[in-house]
């Protein structure tokens, strides 16, 4: 059975409404988290630590609540909630990010996605050139995206006006449905 346009419209409105509610909820989380500590046990912040590995601090948003790092480079970062940051591409952070950090490189990364052509890709590793260049590389499986490193030199807050992006995604979804 082909759904009537009216049903699709209803679905669309439902999706938009829930997207807006979700956006409002996550904006509230982002606001609450501003004052939370981002310190490890010895008083170093993760934003001080990244440059020690040749990596820009802005790879992580300012909602980090805690992190741990072992001697062999395994790390775990907790954020106060899920987070979107609009870089050259929209980047999504889960509330927990894990990976292995070595000088100039994060591998085995879990918890960061990048959006390209309406599709979300898992970022599997992040690399910089050694010596440093103007670029940073996001590895999403079979593709490596070359991005300007400059946008990661400052630490960003999670996007507050998320609604627009989410509505855009819902519209994308709607258009994809219509085109089938
Ligand atoms: C704190 O710990 C990190 C690794 O956990 C280390 O790289 C850094 O040098 C330490 N800072 C101090 C001041 O000991
Ligand atoms: C991150 O959060 C989880 C669940 O709340 C907790 O078990 C874990 O210890 C936290 N990790 C760090 C590095 O604080």
TrEMBL record:
Keywords: Signal. InterPro entries: At5g01610-like (IPR036758), DUF538 (IPR007493). This is Uncharacterized protein. Pfam families: DUF538. The lineage of its organism: Eukaryota, Viridiplantae, Streptophyta, Embryophyta, Tracheophyta. Residues 1-21 form the signal peptide. PANTHER family: EXPRESSED PROTEIN, T31J12.3 PROTEIN-RELATED.
